TrEMBL record:
<protein>
    <recommendedName>
        <fullName>DUF2490 domain-containing protein</fullName>
    </recommendedName>
</protein>
<dbReference type="InterPro" id="IPR019619">
    <property type="entry name" value="DUF2490"/>
</dbReference>
<dbReference type="Pfam" id="PF10677">
    <property type="entry name" value="DUF2490"/>
</dbReference>
Length: 231
């Protein structure tokens, strides 16, 4: 019963996200991005694990015009410690190369601290993530984020090689800083993953962001692709 309800909720969420994207062309403060990434995950017999990621963000649509422009390239590293059966504490650093694409902006450093907790109900995986981040660029911004994510295999009880899985998430984002007013935003994400091999996964998805809806709202749509390798 719970699983059937959850599947119906996932289908409805996909429909809702599609409805958002259909209406985006009518919004003036809308930007479309593409963001491909490649990540390497290193696990060990100890509770520690490591992630290395390289990604770039490209502007595809801005100011009511289609565009093709690189916004930044990002390098990221995360170190995680498993806590208990389902918890994980993570610390990370992200560096964005921005100046080479926009001489009026500085490169950015982000420090990340987070706690995540995952549970499983039959073949459904649900996870909660609490994240705090500090953004250092022309000004300093503090971010507080909460994400709820569900992941379900589409070909059985789990995602095996050459099988698909579906992920849906919603995330609330609160931002504040000494030189900026506090703002709230919401993100909706829908992605499809394909297990190429036992240690290789490809992901494709869309993320809709409604930013700063307490002041001057603007919307963004991300076309996300990712290749993940595990050792």
């Amino acid at each position: 019963m719970i699983l059937t309800y959850t599947k119906n909720l996932l289908v409805f969420s996909i429909f809702l996200l599609g409805s958002f994207t259909y209406q985006l062309h009518a919004q003036k403060k809308f930007t479309g991005f593409a963001e491909p990434s490649v990540s390497l995950n290193i696990k060990s017999e100890s509770p520690w694990s490591y992630n290395f990621t390289i990604a770039n963000r490209d502007i595809l649509y801005q100011k009511e015009e289609f565009n093709a422009e690189i916004k930044h390239i990002e390098l990221a590293q995360y170190t995680s410690l498993s806590v208990g059966l389902y918890g994980k504490i993570t610390a990370g650093i992200r560096y964005r190369f921005i100046e080479m694409f926009d001489e009026h902006k500085d490169n950015e450093v982000r420090l990340v601290e987070q706690y995540s907790y995952s549970t499983k109900i039959k073949n459904l995986k649900a996870s909660h993530r609490f994240r705090i981040a500090q953004r250092f660029r022309e000004r300093t911004t503090h971010r507080f984020r909460y994400r709820f994510l569900v992941d379900i295999p589409l070909n059985g009880q789990r995602s095996d090689v050459k099988e698909f899985s579906l992920s849906l998430s919603t995330e609330s984002v609160f931002e504040m800083g000494k030189e900026e007013k506090p703002s709230l935003g919401q993100r909706l994400n829908s992605s499809l993953s394909y297990q190429i091999s036992s240690n290789t996964k490809f992901k494709f998805g869309l993320e809709y962001r409604y930013r700063n809806y307490t002041q001057t709202p603007k919307t963004e749509l991300f076309l996300l692709t990712g290749l993940s390798l595990s050792l």
